Amino acid sequence: MSDTDTTSASHAVLDVWCDLQCPDCHQALEDLRALRARYGDRLEIRLRHFPLAKNKHAYAAAQAAEEAADQGRAWPYAEALLARTADLGARGEKLLVEVAGDLGLDAEEVDTALIDGRHMLAVDADQAEGKAIGVSGTPTYVIGGERLDGGKSQEGLRERIEEIADRLLAE
Questions:
Q1: pLDDT, tens digit, 9 for 90 and up, residues 137-165
Q2: b or e along 43-61 (b: 16 or more beta carbons within 10 Å of the residue's beta carbon)?
Q3: Cα(65)–Cα(82) distance, integer angstroms
Q4: Which of 13, 41, 98, 154 could, after both became Cys, cross-link 150 (CB 3.0–4.6 A)?
Q5: Which is more confident, 11 or 123?
Q6: What is the phi/psi pair of residue 42, to 5°?
Q7: Helix H or strand E encompassing 135
Q8: The pTM is what?
Q9: What order of strands is seen across the sheet that includes strand 12-18?
Q10: CA 9, CA 72: separation in Å to the nearest integer?
């Protein structure tokens, strides 16, 4: 990917490698909302899937989020799941379909997508790309070619992301 794909004078991209059943990713929501409020359309925040093996419903959640994206509601769906990580751990796929319905998505289509596996390749591709660039835990942020690991501590990460975004947007 060339630099023109990731940034332009008025636009920067933040990839967020996320496990939708991860409590640390839940904690990151506040930072993502603050970044969205600060930058609006100038910072494209992209959800990238990195389901961790220890979270047994994370892979299905990533597939459901891909279906939500196809229906035009990627972030509202991801945020709704991240707000309920413990519930997802307890209820699994039932919750994935229920949240879709709550958001006005075609819940039956989300359920069907989980059964037919139509989004598995997209999730697998994200995970493979994440591993290739050194993602090992979630959340991990990539902006301006710099990887920031939020899985250990999110202390100071939003400030660092803002520094990089400000620099990219000023170039």
A1: 999 999 999 999 887 777 888 999 999 99
A2: bebebbbbbbeebebbbbb
A3: 11
A4: 154
A5: 123
A6: -75, -20
A7: none
A8: 0.89
A9: 43-49, 12-18, 140-143, 146-149
A10: 26
